[in-house]
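Much of what follows relies on a compact textual record of a protein's fold. Think of the row as the fold of the chain written in a discrete alphabet. An example makes this concrete, so a full record is given next.


***
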Amino acid sequence: MERSEGVILGITGGVAVGKSTVAKILAERGAAVVSADELAREVVAPGSKTLRILVAYFGTDILRRDGTLDRQVLGDIVFGNEEKRSFLNAVTHAAIAELAVRRLGDLEARGAELIVYESPLLFEAKAEGRVDLVLVVKAPEKEQRDRLLRRPGMTAARAQTMIAAQMSQQEKASRGDFVIETDGTLKELEEKVDALLLRLRELISAGFRSRRVTRPDSRA
């Protein structure tokens, strides 16, 4: 891909639609991947400022004996409580945003050609300005629910609430530059990703309008 700086492709989509699988396929094809979910775990590591803020608000019950965050307990606390969920999102999104800009900038400075930023809440967190283009991954609604129900401890009611709490798949798809639906075999998905890479190369060669407003040297 001929360009003076790396291209950052945002990947987003609803819960349990296959975003991480698509990101993994892209990584196998040479892309550098930054996962917002991994950053989310990093920003609440023991001793972190973010974890101290959360403990001050939610109490020490959210901590395990070893001092790490008990995500299950925290999830139960904010489940169905909009005020607490909003506080949690505000605190963690800010910390993730700062770390994401730094990581993406570091990869670009090292000369990475294609950088993938996988973020389930890219639009909800108004983070699309960190990327050049956005790929929305979606799945048939029944398949999405079935995948979610296969997760340990998941119930039908909780799965439905999780899906309903997010921006709809249709809305996300309408806001993306590309859409991939994970409605077939792994081989078929790999073929879709390869077609996406070809389209990306064509766009980069022809020139395209980037969404990006946050540059590598910014901490905004």
